[in-house]
Amino acid sequence: MWTYRNPVQVRFGSGIFSDLPTAIAGRRYALITYPDDYFRALAADLGGKAGAPALVIDDIAPNPDIRLLAEQTARFAALQDQPEVIVALGGGSVIDSAKVFAAARGDFAAMEAFLKKRAGAETLRPLPLIAVPTTAGTGSEVTCWGTVWDAEGGNKFSLAHGGLYPEVSLVDPALMVGKPRGLTIQTGLDALSHSLESLWNRSANPVSMAHAVAAARGVIATLPRLVADLANVDLRADMARAATLAGFAFSNTKTAIAHSLSYPITLRHDVPHGIACSFSLPMIIRSVADQGGICAEGIQAIFGATGNAAAAQLEEFLKKLGVSPNFHDYGVDDAEFRELVDLAIGGERGQNFIGSKESLLAAARLGADPRKAVA
Ligand SMILES: NC(=O)c1ccc[n+]([C@@H]2O[C@H](COP(=O)([O-])OP(=O)(O)OC[C@H]3O[C@@H](n4cnc5c(N)ncnc54)[C@H](O)[C@@H]3O)[C@@H](O)[C@H]2O)c1
Ligand SMILES: [Fe+2]
Fold first, then answer.
1. What string of DSSP letters covers 334-358?
2. Comparing C-alpha atoms, which of 307, 291, 297 is closest to residue 356?
3. Nearest Cα to Cα of residue 260 among 157, 129, 349
4. End of a domain among 174, 202, 226?
5. What's the 135 CA to ligand 1 centre distance in angstroms?
6. Which residue has the CA at smallest separation from atom 22 of ligand 1?
7. Same domain, yes or no: 169 and 198
8. Which of 92, 114, 229, 366 stands the most exposed, by the fewest C-beta atoms within 10 Å?
């Protein structure tokens, strides 16, 4: 038995950004974006067509931190007239911040109680959200959750509420042509991780698998060509499509062990999210080699192989992009990696994983008996 549901309307295409005033439809709106000139120019263009926003929050920093989010939410509280819709123009950090503002409606304490203790879920009424992703990676434009970081406390929280699905997402590949090489690789690998994570997942189902296979095949076919031709809008469109499809895949499963492993690596070793959640993918493919079902079917459909042969292909792919599949290269030693596997398996996302701690350690060549490690 399985179910699949995703209520987001996606409007996709080069130039679809011009639909944004229609999507706002005369409502009082808050605009959330980055401080860079490129985004300021887009905001000015929007203001000219949709009227001035009720509030602009344009100091979004990568990996939205709980302290800055509290301060930004207070700017909503100070408004006489609350916005009727929130427009997120940016990557995952912008869309996830917008989800926090939508859930808080100016009351950060209520949002925080829900975020940390799941308190008040029944009274949380998030504002409607319009997402315009400018990275092809997080899939946040079609999910109902957002990642909130607490750098000081060394923590990461996941905001999740059915009311946080954007009502509309405008996916415009033309907005992505200015992404530099490093960011293109990081965000593309984040999307690959989302698709594979939805396969070795307790909530995997035939619809999520179909999206995951199409997404992973899209990333693998496109990313190496795109990094050699960053201004190519057709390749940007292929990557944007793959990232949104990966979003549809994990919108119903959440992520799993690779993301669970990644959060402390980002917090402790400053490794960007897209790299931290993808370098371990070949190792995880090896660790699920004995699993059947949707996981095996999906991996076979993507790589034409499972187990070692699929993992070796993915290792080659990562290395060609300059990404090492070896945790030592991120400043993590054997002892720390064992600790991270323990933490990850016990973590919220780790519990979605269909594999075992033992098979992971063996695939990482950290098994009790190294001779038993999978070659
Ligand atoms: N909600 C989810 O389901 C989900 C999934 C995965 C990751 N995340 C979170 O998303 C965040 C990462 O988001 P991201 O990878 O999209 O990056 P980001 O939003 O953090 O942006 C990173 C940098 O890219 C720049 N940038 C963005 N778009 C650009 C463009 N079109 N041209 C040039 N520069 C551009 C920004 O100015 C910024 O400096 C992390 O906090 C991560 O934890 C959320
Ligand atoms: Fe991710």
1. HHHHHHHHHHHHHSTTGGGB-S-HH
2. 291
3. 349
4. 174
5. 6
6. 62
7. no
8. 229
